[in-house]
Amino acid sequence: xxxxxxxxxxxxxxxxxxxxxxxxxxxxxxxxxxxxxxxxxxxxxxxxxxxxxxxxxxxxxxxxxxxxxxxxxxxxxxxxxxxxxxxxxxxxxxxxxxxxxxxxxxxxxxxxxxxxxxxxxxxxxxxxxxxxxxxxxxxxxxxxxxxxxxxxx
Length: 153
Prior knowledge:
Helix content is 26%, strand content 46%. It is built from 1 helix and 10 strands. The protein has one helix spanning 3-42, and strands at 47-56, 62-70, 75-81, 84-91, 93-95, 102-106, 109-117, 120-127, 133-138, 141-146. The strands form 2 sheets. Strands 5-1-2-10-9 form a 5-stranded mixed sheet, with no helix packed on it. Strands 3-4-8-7-6 form a 5-stranded antiparallel sheet, with no helix packed on it. A hairpin with a 2-residue loop joins strand 7 and strand 8 (120-127). The chain is elongated.
C-alpha cells in the first residue's frame, strides 16, 4: 500500500470517528434537553383541591368553598345565561375528588359539580336564573359567593 493510500485511510477513519462522536454528542444533547424539561413537564398540578362544601347565608346567598393545598391557583371565571351557570376554572390543579351533582336548592343555586382532568379543575354551578356573584382565591381556599336576592338583568 502506498503512503497516499495510508493517508486516505487515516482521513476516512478520522471522518468516521468525528461523525460517530457527532452522533453521540447529538444524542447526549437530546438526553440533557429531555432531562431538563422533564421536571417541568411532570409538574402539572401545583395545587390540590381537597374538599368542596357550601353554606347558605341569612340573606339567601350561597358560598361554595373549595379547600386547597399548595399554591393559590390562577382562576378564570365566566357565566352563561342559557342555561344560567357560573363556571370557575382553576389552572394547574388536581382534585382529590370529583363530585357528582351536589344539590343545593337555595336562592338561585340549584347545585354544583366539580370536575378535574388534564391539570385543570372546573366548578360548574347550575342556577335557576343569572345572579350577581364574586369569588376570592386565597391561600387554602377558593370561595365563590352567589347573591341570594333579586336576579341580575
